[in-house]
Specification:
Elements (H helix, E strand, L loop, with lengths): L2 E6 L5 H11 L6 E7 L4 E7 L2 H9 L8 E7 L14 E3 L2 E9 L2 H10 L9 H12 L4 H11 L2 E9 L5 E6 L4 E4 L4 E4 L11 E4 L4 E6 L2 E6 L2 E2 L5 E2 L15 H7 L1 H13 L13 E6 L1 H16 L3 E6 H4 L10 E7 L5 H11 L3 E6 L5 H5 L2 E4 L12 H17 L5 H17 L1 H11 L4 E6 L2 H17 L2 E6 L16 E6 L5 H12 L4 E6 L7 E4 L13 H14 L18
Parallel strand pairs: 16-17, 16-18, 18-19, 19-20, 21-22, 21-23, 23-24, 24-25
Antiparallel strand pairs: 1-4, 1-10, 2-3, 2-4, 5-6, 6-7, 7-8, 8-12, 9-10, 9-11, 11-15, 12-13, 13-14
Helix pairs in contact: 1-2, 3-4, 4-5, 7-12, 7-13, 8-12, 8-15, 14-17, 15-17
This protein binds 6-O-phosphono-alpha-D-glucopyranose.
The site of 6-O-phosphono-alpha-D-glucopyranose has 16 residues, from helix 8.
């Protein structure tokens, strides 16, 4: 994972790099560092923990005068999060930052050690620096071309060489873009890191090398110059403002009604703008984390529409022996479009079937490599725990299901949905009270059947990832095959029961746990005699999850707030998981 940024221009890089890192912090935040360079010195400053620690450190040091620098925020893969493992890493004349994983780092390390290289960290990144340094004999491009052939895995590197004042970068599988400003250039993992300075960027291709000097930039691959179009991002820097909210998670939940309205209006009378999935007889749905749970909602909706659906998490799908039948469509769901496992699953699927990307980031790998793409248009999502992107993924799946099986009340209900969602989200006092009842507990369960089980999975994930309360979701009928032994006096059990056909079954399962001491929280359309309940308006079945999950997102938020958790950056997580 990790986020990288490099700057070459006319300004001092400190503020640009720190601001960039703050925008990349969602990619990992266990340690961070910068390297600044002028003709005489390379100054490296690192710190453990959040970017704010690094910023403090930089404010207290005398920094060299310069206009070239690189920086990194880390999500540890090789070696624990400490200062020596933090990037940048320097070996000989080479200093670099890295996003990705060098898979043959172990073999290369041994080889280099035999050649006399001494390593100061446990990272694979230092090995990459050592390889480039080994091949550097005065010509950096030559060294990088040789190194690319030797380094296996996924990587995006921003590199400085002691002998010149250029900024170098290379990428293979990990995302990297070149930002083009006025007399200044950037390389970064994500355009969001540089939006304050420019919206113009170039997408770098696989194994391409970019060299930035005082005159401009040059992109090459296998020693041949590559011409690439300069694109302009539609994102604005405001997308990263908190706009008066205390946390991005709350800000992003509150954006849901407007975003749902916008996306619904775009497609509802223009369903033909969506890919025609009717021509496929089999659908596979793939994703990771919440994107997978959005897919689970989709599976239920498509199956109800009469289509055979297989679903799996990307990390399994990529290694399973998948039997591809003719007329199969593989749907890849990903907010970032850069999740490593989802990319691998997509590349496998691309060899056998048509693929459809449901993504947020237009310039992402998944958006570019699938047969079709539908953008969820969530804008930038900053909080690590996804909320609005999940909901819009579900909305697209719901619209696709409606295309397969148009039914009476859908359009009318979809028009009402944004307003109903707003009413649901406005009840903050209600969610706070519910959070009061939950926040001291250490175990919570969610139960549901069919689409309500899919909703349970997302509700449970949201709660555990932001509040650190252990939480699990079960198919309501399955609980008694073991897990029920964990129910004790006061254990909180959320029962999601919106599907009328099986609602009574779920209620019976809830009664089974209540009689063993569980404390119920009912979520459904019918008023019931339980003390704690979330009653949501009954709407078209294909839209119902969109009116339930936001309530669970609010509960997760307020429980985490009560517990004093770092809501936007939960420990050990990262928003975009670009390693396997
Ligand atoms: C991480 C994030 C989740 C997200 C998942 C998939 O685990 O913390 O919120 O659902 O990755 O990310 P993607 O960008 O592929 O949707």
């Amino acid at each position: 994972m990790c986020g990288i940024i490099g700057y070459k221009g006319k300004k001092h890089p400190k503020d640009i790099l720190i601001n960039g890192l703050k925008n990349l912090e969602y990619r990992g935040y266990d340690s961070a560092g910068v390297a600044l360079k002028n003709d005489d010195t390379i100054q490296i400053i690192k710190s453990v923990g959040k970017i704010s620690h690094l910023e403090e450190k930089l404010n207290n040091e005398k920094l060299i005068d310069c206009n070239l620098g690189i920086a990194h925020t880390r999500w540890a893969t090789h070696g624990e999060p400490n200062e020596s493992n933090a990037h940048p890493h320097r070996v000989g004349k080479i200093t670099l930052v890295h996003n990705g994983i060098i898979e043959n780092a172990g073999v290369l390390r041994e080889q280099l050690q035999k050649e006399g290289v001494k390593f100061n960290s446990n990272t694979d990144t230092e090995v990459a620096a050592a390889i480039i340094n080994k091949y550097y004999t005065g010509d950096m491009e030559k060294a990088l071309n040789k190194a690319i052939k030797e380094i296996k895995g996924s990587y995006a590197l921003a590199i400085l060489c002691e002998d010149d004042d250029k900024l170098y970068a290379i990428r293979c599988e990990s995302p990297l873009i070149l930002g083009v400003g006025k007399d200044e250039y950037f390389v970064t993992s994500d355009i969001g890191a540089i939006l304050k300075y420019t919206r113009d960027y170039v997408l770098l291709g696989e194994n391409e090398i970019v060299v930035i000097d005082n005159k401009g930039y040059k992109i090459t691959k296998d020693n041949k110059v590559v011409k690439r179009e300069v694109l302009t991002s539609k994102l604005t820097n405001e997308a990263t403002d908190l706009c008066g909210y205390d946390h991005y998670m709350m800000k992003e939940i509150m954006e849901e009604p407007v975003l749902v309205d916008n996306l619904a209006n775009k497609y509802i009378h223009n369903l033909k703008k969506l890919p025609d999935i009717k021509k496929y007889q089999h659908i596979h749905i793939i994703g990771c984390g919440s994107a997978y749970y959005a897919g689970m909602v989709g599976k239920n909706l498509f199956e109800d529409a009469g289509v055979e659906v297989e679903i799996d998490v990307a990390s399994e799908y990529r290694y399973r022996n998948i039997i591809y039948k003719p007329n199969t469509l593989v749907i890849l769901i990903s907010q970032s479009g850069e999740t490593a496992d989802t990319i691998a699953a997509m590349r496998k699927a691309n060899e056998h079937a048509d693929t459809l990307a449901i993504v947020n980031v237009d310039a992402s790998t998944i958006a570019r490599e699938c047969t079709y793409k539908v953008l969820i248009e969530a804008g930038r999502e900053v909080a690590v725990a996804t909320t609005k992107a999940y909901l819009l993924q579900v909305l697209i799946l719901s619209l696709l299901a409606y295309r397969l099986d148009p039914d009476g009340t859908y359009v009318e209900d979809l028009k009402k949905l944004p307003q109903q969602l707003k009413v649901l989200l406005d009840k903050t006092g209600f969610y706070k009270k519910l959070a009061d009842a939950i926040y001291k507990h250490e175990d919570v369960f969610f139960i549901g059947r069919k689409v309500d089980y899919a909703i349970s999975m997302e509700g449970s994930l949201k709660l555990k990832e932001v509040s650190y309360i252990h939480s699990d979701a079960y198919q309501a009928g399955e609980l008694k095959h073991g897990t029920i032994s964990l129910i004790k006096d006061g254990t909180i059990v959320f029962a999601i029961a919106t599907d009328d056909d099986i609602r009574d079954k779920t209620i019976s399962n809830l009664e089974e746990v209540i009689s063993r001491g569980a404390y119920p929280i009912y979520v459904g359309n019918e008023d019931v005699a339980y003390d704690h309940k979330i009653i949501v308006p009954r709407i078209n079945k294909k839209l119902q999850p969109i009116l339930v999950v936001p309530a669970l997102q609010m509960i997760a938020y307020f429980v985490a707030l009560k517990r004093g958790c770092d809501i936007d950056k939960p420990k050990n997580l990262a928003k975009s998981v670009t390693v396997e």
